[in-house]
């Protein structure tokens, strides 16, 4: 061109070339062979090409910047600035985050139903910013879990799952079964032991049966249990702090949980509102579930006291999985197939006859 040529056959338009055969229009290139229109490029997390200048962040958009992305925060969707083609780029949300979002959606739906009793698919779609197809799948899942009932265009609360009867009302139900279960469970408590008693009407029937034990230490978050035992000679009662849940006389909250730190018991007798192979021990109260779970965490052996009416039912909050239970004491009307499954898992099952214990 100018009477001179570079010594390299790959020389550029001015007799010169960059040191890389992938040089750009001016004999120079960016350090990345996938450079964009100016010899530079950006790319997103999945390596898709963004025809834009590249900044110091590999998720850079048209100006080398991203919006809404932080490695530590890991949002569900990160929106990248407009690219040189006028479009917008989105990073796909990770699978783990999608699962997290579904859990949060389910919690929102249930909490909304507890307050308003019913909800429409269109409302949830707008509120949760997901498609109506996704909402319907969420409702199907929650219906399978017996948390709601689907209706035309929406869902209604499965009220019997959340409306817990009062303590006095529960005392009047299945009296013979509960009495027989209490008598059997009292046989497990011997002199000198350290035991934990949770809340519940069946647990309340145990306390009169152990008042003759000597050198017994009882840990409980149930006010009625403590009141029954605190004046008994030979029994030391450890009552957690916390605020009162009137429906069960339970002490709950952070103070109750912290009071159990450092405590260890040989046997924990646990009551529950529901009991099943899939869901384990369950209760309608999240705070009560947390306290009872802490009791179980500090127990060598866990005994579930559940009459047959509680079998194959689930309240809203799981206390523990079924495999954390060592022994189940129930009445002879418990479903035979569930009893067989429990035994197959190595869980001892004691069946009592109502009115014959």
Automatic annotation (TrEMBL):
Keywords: DNA-binding, Transcription, Transcription regulation
Ranges where the record places region Disordered: 1-40
Name assigned to this protein: DeoR/GlpR transcriptional regulator
Limits of the HTH deoR-type domain: 102-157
Gene Ontology molecular function: DNA binding; DNA-binding transcription factor activity
Taxonomic superkingdom: Bacteria
InterPro entries: Carb_Metab_HTH_regulators, DeoR-like_C, DeoR_HTH, NagB/RpiA_transferase-like, Tscrpt_reg_HTH_DeoR_CS, WH-like_DNA-bd_sf, WH_DNA-bd_sf
Record bears the keyword DNA-binding: yes
Pfam families reported for this sequence: DeoRC, HTH_DeoR
Species name: Paenibacillus piri
Segments traversing the membrane: none
């Amino acid at each position: 061109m100018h009477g001179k040529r570079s010594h390299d056959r790959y020389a550029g338009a001015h007799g010169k070339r960059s040191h890389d055969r992938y040089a750009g229009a001016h004999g120079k290139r960016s350090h990345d062979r996938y450079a964009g229109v100016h010899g530079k490029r950006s790319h997103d997390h999945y390596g898709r090409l963004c025809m834009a200048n590249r900044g110091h962040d590999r998720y850079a958009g048209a100006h080398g910047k991203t919006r809404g992305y932080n490695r530590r925060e890991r949002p569900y969707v990160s929106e990248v600035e407009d690219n040189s083609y006028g479009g917008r780029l989105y990073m796909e949300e990770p699978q783990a985050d999608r699962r997290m979002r579904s859990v949060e959606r389910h919690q929102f739906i249930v909490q909304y139903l507890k307050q308003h009793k019913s909800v429409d698919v269109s409302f949830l779609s707008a509120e949760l910013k997901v498609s109506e197809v996704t909402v319907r799948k969420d409702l199907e899942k929650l219906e399978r879990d017996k948390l709601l009932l689907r209706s035309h265009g929406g869902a209604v609360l499965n009220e019997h799952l959340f409306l817990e009867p009062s303590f006095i009302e529960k005392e009047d139900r299945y009296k013979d079964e509960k009495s027989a279960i209490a008598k059997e469970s009292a046989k497990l408590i011997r002199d000198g032991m350290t035991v934990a008693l949770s809340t519940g009407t069946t647990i309340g029937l145990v306390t009169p049966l152990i008042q003759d034990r000597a050198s017994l230490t009882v840990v409980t978050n149930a006010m009625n249990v403590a009141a029954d035992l605190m004046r008994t000679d030979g029994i030391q009662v450890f009552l957690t702090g916390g605020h009162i849940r009137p429906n069960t006389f339970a002490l709950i909250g952070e103070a109750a949980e912290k009071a159990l730190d450092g405590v260890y018991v040989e046997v924990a007798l646990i009551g529950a509102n529901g009991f099943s192979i899939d869901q384990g021990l369950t209760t309608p109260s999240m705070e009560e579930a947390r306290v009872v779970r802490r009791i179980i965490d500090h127990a060598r052996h866990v005994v579930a006291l559940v009459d047959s009416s509680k079998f194959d039912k689930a309240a809203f909050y799981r206390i523990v999985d079924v495999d954390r239970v060592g022994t189940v004491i129930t009445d002879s009307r418990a479903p035979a197939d569930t009893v067989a499954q429990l035994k197959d898992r190595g869980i001892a099952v004691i069946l009592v006859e109502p009115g014959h214990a």
